[in-house]
Amino acid sequence: MIRKAVIPAAGFGTRFLPATKCSPKEMLPIVDTPVIQYVVEEAVASGITDILMVIGRGKRAIEEHFDRSAELEWELEAKGKLDQLRQIRRISNLANIHFVWQKQMLGLGDAIRCAEAHVGSEPFAVLLGDTLLQSTSGTPAIRQLIDAYEERRTCVVAVEEVSRERVSKYGVISGEPLAGGKIWRVDDLVEKPAPDEAPSNLAIASRYVLTPDIFATLRDVRPGKGGEIQLTDALRLLAHASPIHARVIDAIRHDVGNHLGFIKTNIIYGLLRPELRETLGAFIKETAARL
Ligand code: UTP
After folding, report:
1. Where are the domains of the chain?
2. How far is CA 171 from CA 40, 74, 79, 125, 198, in A?
3. Of 72, 73, 183, 265, whose CB is crowded by the most CB atoms within 10 A?
């Protein structure tokens, strides 16, 4: 049973400056809801009951978002805004949410190391706090990985198919598909390969199920580019020593931490809202024709 999740949300978010100078990129709104709330909801819908967020300087807004706000609740109640009151109360009751501070932003691998004391000896889910995975099968993306973990009992990384020209932007796996083709046995992971050298077009997609032996492996990882400890490097060490797997997820990835990703995600999630769909759709068509 996987019941714990870790959400790394401590990064500087330099691609989204100046907005991220003093507000976390994980709090950027998609329509009216911060990215990280969608991520928490994905975890909760997948059976996770305990969430550890890794945060750093300037990230207090994340703590406050998931805490109760008695003053706001009182104000909404007094004004009879009961729908909003329900929404606000729901956020603070979504799961048991804990926080740990990453003192220096030494990379995603280092952020995971900060979770060791909390996670202990259980396998756990990891969901990056700045990326949405929109399920195309009705099963939340991290649940798809948990199911794969229950079948294989090893670390599982989410992967998505990308076009050959785009592989150089991502970490890519090499390995063999198992029967059915959704789960792959992973032999190696290659960070940002040239298109003609990429071992596959399956790119690592911001969700993982990790077993606790990742912590010992992370201790052996040498800092890479910019002095950062990369999670991909630890997974590569692990894959060389023991089996790990990848799940080709039935989901579309939306990376909100870059300009184009943020704007596109807002348009898509806006179009998915029944109350916005018609007017937003008409506005986009008109504007595209006019500009
Ligand atoms: P990114 O690779 O997007 O890095 O992190 P970043 O620093 O946040 O953003 P840029 O590249 O400077 O714009 C992916 C996820 O891992 C977390 C981030 O908060 C994000 O959710 N992260 C990254 C950490 O928690 N700690 C780190 O040291 C680095």
Report:
1. 4-257
2. 24, 47, 50, 19, 10
3. 265
Give Cα 40 to chain centroid, integer Å. 9
Structure tokens at 127: 């969901």
User: What's the one-letter identity of residue 6?
Assistant: V
Q: How far apart are CA 10 and CA 106, in angstroms?
A: 10
Strands 50-55, 4-8: parallel, antiparallel or unpaired by DSSP? parallel
Helix (H, G, I), strand (E, B) or coil at 28: coil
Pocket of ligand 1 (CB under 6 A): 8-16, 54, 102, 105-108, 110-111, 128-130, 257
CA of 9, closest atom in ligand 1: 19
pTM above 0.90, yes or no: yes
Residue among 7, 105, 108, 256 whose CB has most ligand 1 atoms within 8 A, to mutate: 108
Over residues 236-258, the pLDDT tens digits come to 999 999 999 999 999 999 999 99
Show Cβ contacts of residue 107 under 8 Å, excluding neighbours closer than 6 positions. Answer: 223, 224, 226, 227, 228, 229, 230, 231
| CATH code of the domain made up of 4-257 | 3.90.550.10
